[in-house]
Amino acid sequence: MFRHDSPDEAAFRAEVRTWLAANLPAALRGRTNRPPPAELMPWYRMLSRKGWIAPHWPKQHGGMGATLNQQIVMTEELAQVGAPQLPAQGLNHIGPILIEFGTAAQKARHLPPIIEGSVIWAQGYSEPGAGSDLASLATRATLEGDHFIVHGQKIWTTWGHHSDWMFALVRTAPQAQPRQAGISFLLLDLHSPGITIRPIKTIAGDDEFSEVFFDNVMVPAENLVGKLNDGWRIANALLGHERLGTSNPQFALMALERIKTMARASGVMADPTFQDRLAAASINVIALAALFSHAVELTNRQHGLGPDSSIIKIFGSELLQALDELLIEAAGSHAAAEQPIATDFGVVDVSTPFLQVRRATIYGGSSEIQRNIVARRVLNLPN
Ligand SMILES: Cc1cc2nc3c(=O)[nH]c(=O)nc-3n(C[C@H](O)[C@H](O)[C@H](O)COP(=O)(O)OP(=O)(O)OC[C@H]3O[C@@H](n4cnc5c(N)ncnc54)[C@H](O)[C@@H]3O)c2cc1C
What we know:
Blueprint lengths: L6 H17 L13 H14 L17 H13 L7 H14 L2 H13 L4 E4 L15 E5 L2 E12 L6 E7 L11 E7 L5 E6 L8 E12 L3 E2 L5 H15 L4 H17 L5 H31 L5 H24 L9 E3 L2 E3 L2 H6 L10 H12 L5
Parallel strand pairs: 1-4
Antiparallel strand pairs: 2-3, 3-7, 4-5, 5-8, 6-7, 9-10
Helix pairs in contact: 1-3, 3-7, 4-5, 4-6, 6-9, 7-8, 7-9, 8-9, 9-11
Bound molecules: flavin-adenine dinucleotide.
The site of flavin-adenine dinucleotide has 19 residues, from β1, β3 and α11.
């Protein structure tokens, strides 16, 4: 968008574009919700067989070992064709964490199934009493010989009811002070006895997440990632990956296309005031793409972003909400329709993305919490 492809990159772009055009099923294009696993995972496995499922992973772990520019080309081409959002917990969260902190045995066991798409992962951080204040989490893991006994509850677990494994934060030293010093990072097989999972419906009508109950579940001690009571450090490294991943400009680019289609159909595209707002929105999408590629470059170089990930999370999530508000405006009196709107320029779903994107300023840490992080750790303001 703001740079020119080298001849090699142009060739790669052409290859990606041709392959996506020929292989991405029509039913998965331009979806405003994430399709359920039965629809999405065959596509995931197709990308995997092509060798493109994990552009950002090193080749030795089954990734593509792509350069930054190749990663950006992939992002742009996936947006262009309206490709659906893939499950991120394996590819963007636990995968990179195991590459950095996992044992050789953990890597050998868990990385290949993520690449193949034969195992789905869930993130077990939040609890009913621990969201923004994550350090107050109470799910307990007690070490007894060669296994932990896990007891407690997680909530808002994306795709929990579709998942095979969960990476979870658990309390292993209840008396430790500060509270962060008593937390460990554990891998849990969700098919273990003693686990109950209940889906939760969102405002957009999909059951994207669930609550997960652990009733004295036995977990092998070898499933501990990093050292005992050192989970907080790993948790934060992972949140950096999560905040960056959720700010991928692919979704903003797709939202922009939706606005343009709707604005042409409703005629508002001819209105100079609307044109001004669309131009401002387009500039912000370009700014997000620039910020994202800068952040990806920093991550590639130093294996983590630190508090910068909060800045991109705020900008990316609030931009998505602003874009969907512009979409509502473009749709005018049609905006209240619950179903996608058929126009001369194509079908546009207005209400689903508007409702879906409410969540963007909450997951991965709310905007208020990100602003607190920026205030303390970037601007060094007093508490
Ligand atoms: C779509 C979606 C998917 C999710 N997926 C997962 C998942 O897979 N795994 C997982 O573990 N969690 C997941 N979450 C949970 C998410 O991480 C939490 O919702 C989030 O951290 C906020 O916690 P909370 O919901 O308990 O809200 P609270 O912490 O109760 O916050 C409520 C409100 O108070 C504000 N607030 C709280 N503390 C402060 C403060 N100190 N200063 C200023 N304002 C404050 C918050 O910004 C928010 O507006 C998901 C959430 C959503 C919406």
